[in-house]
Amino acid sequence: MKIPATASQFPSGSRFLDLRESSVLLALLLALAAFYVATLRPGQAWGDDFAMYLMHARNLAQGVPYNQTGYIYNPELPEVGPRSYPPLYPLLLSFIYRVRGLDLSAMKVLVILLFLSGLYVLARLLRHVLPLWVTLLITAGIALNPYILGMKESLGSDLPFLLFCYSALYVIDLCDRDGWQSRWHLALLVLAVYLSYAMRTVGIVVVPAAIILVLVRKRGIPRRVIEMIAVLCIILLIHILWFRGAASYLDQLNRLSIATVSHNLSGYFWSIRHLLWPLGSVAPSLLLAIVMIALGLWGYAIRAGTGLSILEVFSPLYAVAILLWASDEDLRFFLPLIPLWLFYAAVALREISQRAPIHAMRLAAAPVLIAALAVSSGTALLHADSGPIREGLLDPEFQQLCSYIRSSTPADSVFLFRKPRILALYTDRHAAVSSHSTNDSHLWLVIGQLRAGYIILAPEFTDDYSVLNRLVHHYPGSFREVFHDPEFKVLRIQQQPK
Question: What whole-number percentage of the chain has pLDDT above 90?
Fold first, then answer.
């Protein structure tokens, strides 16, 4: 592998965006923003990560302690969520909360603007290597992918994170091109890295990526970079001491194993075939996924073989981080790598167009793949849901449940429910998720430790329902039904069995 000792290596024809190109890119992003806003759907689905962010945002807006959310962390199920989330995204949401309260539509618009700003930063990085039309095609392809388009309906931090992650990578590239000499660029890097981490904990991956790149370039770490790392460490230490709840993310590492990695690999591959780039039946979807993986790996090898940039260092580090993550294999964790994947596929296609031994292959490879991806996205868009999101917040039965809890239970009540954070947000009660243990004695111990006074049975959440429903049938005298509707049943815990 050729490893240059000078600044960031790009082809001699590479360039920054000039004024005309910036105008074209901004016009595309404005059109995408208009489309995103015009297709927003009222409501919010069940995933309750968003509720934790909103409770943090409310606390910041009202001057309440940041971690005072009502969510009770259960270390037996750390994948539900940590005690608290990083503060940057809630801080941004808090400005909307101060003006409009829990206006989910306004908050979704903020998510859209942050996401498209992230694509702008990414386009500036990719334009170093690719022609403008390819950069625009990747930008549009990412924004119009049905899976990613659907994510605008969620108030999670996944889409906004791209802006801060790619900004950190962009500043690292600036530092790399000036030989890590500019103190202004290094100071900007400290800020960019911190903001990436303050948006999502996994943003810390950019730190080892930057250090590895410096070591490759300089065969050591210059004094100015050491000073930058020291300042960053102090800032991160202060952050960790101030926002302690996010440290509970580490509880998920207790489940780390080879089986976890294998499960995540198979899960991500399934998601790529069925969610990211579906193409009709099993065989075409499988073929498209294999071709995309092969092109991505080949393009990465080409780039790494001709000189590392920060993208070639960051990509494998981030991939390893999410494969080791024991929570689940949700494709949204993979999101920062999807645009880079298209970038590496474009690099591979450029190589095919220049060197393929068969003339027809040189001419047809890129158009055929672009057509396949367009058919995949177009077909999924035609069948995408529209109108209000009925499950979750707009579910009438859930609204009745919350109304009952607010009006008929003590303010200090603790509920066991599969979606504890959304319940805490909309009822101002404490909530936790139950253990999934099959041992009744252990379940009662957990109930006591959490000081739970109520359980909520919801057949839709099968794992929790089976555990709690079994407990209720084993100890009918310990529970009393106080509310039910077609979807939910609330039982008050009378007493623990002796």
Answer: 54
Distances, alpha carbon 227 to alpha carbons 93, 177, 222, 235, 266, in Å: 33, 19, 9, 13, 42
Q: What is the pTM of this model?
A: 0.90
Burial class (CB in 10 A: 0-12, 13-18, 19+), 286: middle
Backbone angles phi, psi at 489, to 5 degrees: -135, 130
- Digit-coded pLDDT (tens) for 168-223: 999 999 999 989 989 999 999 999 999 999 999 999 999 999 999 999 988 888 88
**Under DSSP, is residue 111 helix (H, G, I), strand (E, B) or coil?**
helix
List the beta bridge partners of residue 484. Answer: 489
| Phi, psi (deg, nearest 5) at residue 488 | -135, 150
The answer to whether 481 and 490 are in contact (CB under 8 A) is yes
Which two structure tokens, joined as six digits, stand for 62? 């009202």
pLDDT in tens, 350-404: 888 887 676 566 667 788 888 888 888 888 888 778 888 877 788 889 999 999 9
Q: What does the pLDDT read at residue 56?
A: 95
Q: What's the pLDDT score for residue 365?
A: 77
Contact yes or no for 448/496 (Cβ under 8 A): yes
Give me the mean pLDDT over the 107-134 stretch: 94
Two tokens at 338?
């999807």
What is the C-alpha R_g of the chain? Answer: 25
Beta bridge partners of 71: 431
By C-alpha distance, which of 122, 191, 180, 171 is closest to 337? Answer: 122
- Residues with Cβ < 8 Å from 374, sequence gap 6 or more? none
Residue type, 136: L
Please provide the DSSP assignment of 124-178 as one string.
HHHTTTS-HHHHHHHHHHHHT-HHHHHGGGS-SSHHHHHHHHHHHHHHHHHHHHT
Complete edge-to-edge strand list for the sheet that includes strand 430-432? 430-432, 414-416, 454-457, 489-493, 479-484
- Per-residue burial over 381-400, b if 16 or more Cβ lie within 10 Å, else e, is eeeeeeeebeebbebeebeb
Q: Is the pLDDT of residue 497 over 80?
A: no
pLDDT, residue 9, reads: 45
Block residue for tokens 């000189």:
307
Q: Is the dihedral of CA 384, 387, 393, 399 positive or negative?
A: negative
Residue 7 has pLDDT above 60, yes or no: no
Say what the pLDDT of residue 494 is. Answer: 87
362 DSSP β-pair partners: none
- What are 232's two structure tokens? 């960053």
Q: Are strands 414-416 and 479-484 parallel, antiparallel or unpaired?
A: unpaired
Residue type, 404: Y
Q: How far apart are CA 495 and CA 272, in angstroms?
A: 48
Q: Give the up-direction half-sphere exposure of residue 108: CA atoms within 13 A in the CB hemisphere.
A: 20
Closest of 148, 127, 171 to residue 335, by C-alpha: 148
Looking at residue 420, its amino acid is: P
